[in-house]
Amino acid sequence: MCGIIGYTGAEEAENIIVDALEVLEYRGYDSAGIAVCEADGGIEVRKCAGRVKDLRSLCQGKRSRGTCGIGHTRWATHGGVSDANAHPHKFENVAVVHNGIIENYRDLIRRYHLEDRLQSQTDSEVAAAVLAHFYNGDPLAAIRKAVLKLKGTFALSILFEDIPGVIFAVRNVSPIVIARAREGSMLASDVTVLGQYAKEYFVLPEFYVAVLKKEDIELYDMSGEAAAPEWLTVNWDVDRSSKGGYPFYMEKEIMEQPQVIKETIMPRIREGIPDLSADGIPDSLLLECKRICLVACGTAMHAGLVGKALMQSLVRIHMDVELASEFMYSDAIVDEETLVIAISQSGETIDTLEAVKHAKKNGARTLAVVNVRGASVARVSDYVIYTNAGPEIAVASTKAYTTQLAVLYLLIGRMAYIRGSFGEKEAREFAKELTRVPDVMQQVLDRREEIHYIARSILNARDVFMIGRGLDYSILLEGSLKLKEISYIHSEAYASGELKHGTIALITEDTPVVAVVTQSKVQSKEFSNIKEVQSRGAGVILFMKETFSLEREAVWDSIFKLPAMEDGFMVMPASAALQLLAYYVSLDKGLDVDKPRNLAKVVTVE
Ligand code: AGP
């Protein structure tokens, strides 16, 4: 939910930290701050409500020459948006930036008599106060004692005023990655920023303490024993973390989809058949499970709905899709015969992470589909298949979603083949159609100006309804979320057969309705449902498979004919079209497409 950064080395820290915060801003952007160890031995804190650019202006008023510092960009959880609640928080001689939630902060306030000593309403300042309470010159001992008192999630980056040039870090659930970079050492909330400076990094293990110095990095467990980091390689090149000339990351990431889908699919098709052996996925895992339960949030969950529809129709295995935030409380039927699939772009969504832990406790085997290598969900799962989407910076997920779908297609194709639903011929045809996806999506992207024109018809809408059946309904659930989260237009996706059971009461003259018709087996019913809303005055925007025929007398606001694929793959071109629709509405409304209000890219609070 927040972005944290730390640097200590040969260079001045201020610019490195503020530049890094700009990259991390997608994790939260309601306030920002920096603390630097000054040459005179003190720690200088500068922070403000607003964006990182406001912090940069604040710093320009009083430059710091220090070479060691920590920084933070915030997504408010405890305490409103204000200068005082911005991080870093300094308490006595300890300065802290924090990502996560300290659930017992009120108890700690009482226990350490902090009531009249705090400057903010945040749980993070309480963490700083507890560290200061235990600090008597031994930082490792203070950190060990303090974290034992904290309940909840935390990624803490810490400065002690009398230990200039050294950054300490400790975490529980919330992520921290660490690298040697810029003639020094760096830590960050995720590898998106480190990837610009380093090729090797490690994930700070939970409840280990890292000590970052200019010349090296030390790692200790809770007993004070030294430990060796497990180094990983940054798996994407740096220039994919910049906007590449587009006005917003979201447009760049939409346009990257054909390439990253290809990079996700091609290494996993061997001799024309889907093959997951290179990911270490044994066929036995896919053969032995009696049912599947998929857990995810938001867009990742929508990918799961597509997976469910295809898994059940092609593999004939029962599959549930559970909202990860509901999963632990839904008494879901999960046991040794269940394969739990967890989808998460960031791999740090705490709802999904806790769902995987819950599934394992119930005996299930777990398979993660994750984009960020080494992320928590990947590490806690038995197996992982990485999407090769590269860094996804825009809060609204696009290429991560379609590469998640690509992995699900591979999984379904493999399971259908080894479980006998597909013979070799069908498996090859399925894989061949999957390899067509990048080109077909490119055809939609090449026509994006048509969609930009269509978008203008709903620019000022207050409500937009989206209707479809079966896979079309799953496609629209995702299309509706895209529109809502970046244009702030209230949009709802409805199974079009359900409209007449209540919702159609909301359809009046000129109500904008987006319809998707791509599935042969339900197209006639979908057109009937469209007629029902048209007869009540709705203005319908239709996205339909180009091979379907249209009834002449109907009146359409707009029609966009989608390049044809087998029905089960039409999700891909249709999703690209709906992503563009949402993007252009937000763009033409002059909104910050990449950083929608109230949202953050990674949700590490339950
Ligand atoms: C996607 O557009 C949303 N920003 C959000 O729903 C996201 O998909 C969800 O928070 C899950 O994130 P994850 O894939 O990183 O777990």
Provide structural commentary.
With 606 residues, this protein is of the alpha/beta class. The chain contains 19 helices and 26 strands. The protein has an 8-stranded antiparallel β-sheet. α1 (13-24) runs antiparallel to α2 (52-60), α8 (257-265) packs antiparallel against α15 (424-446) and α10 packs antiparallel against α17. The model has no long low-confidence stretch (mean pLDDT 94). The structure holds 2-deoxy-2-amino glucitol-6-phosphate (AGP). 2-deoxy-2-amino glucitol-6-phosphate binds next to α10.
Question: Which helices and strands occur, and which strands form pairs?
Answer:
Elements: E1 3-9, H1 13-24, E2 31-37, E3 43-49, H2 52-60, E4 68-74, E5 89-91, E6 94-102, H3 105-111, H4 123-134, H5 139-149, E7 152-160, E8 167-172, E9 177-181, E10 184-188, H6 191-194, E11 200-203, E12 209-212, E13 217-220, E14 231-233, H7 249-255, H8 257-265, E15 269-270, E16 273-274, H9 283-288, E17 291-296, H10 298-315, E18 318-323, H11 324-327, E19 338-344, H12 350-361, E20 365-370, H13 376-380, E21 383-386, H14 399-418, H15 424-446, H16 448-455, E22 463-468, H17 471-487, E23 490-495, E24 512-517, H18 523-534, E25 539-545, E26 558-562, H19 571-588
Bound molecules: 2-deoxy-2-amino glucitol-6-phosphate.
Give a quick set of tags describing it.
606 residues, alpha/beta, Glutamine Phosphoribosylpyrophosphate, subunit 1, domain 1, Rossmann fold, 3 domains, eight-stranded antiparallel beta sheet, six-stranded antiparallel beta sheet, 19 helices, 24% strand, globular, binds 2-deoxy-2-amino glucitol-6-phosphate
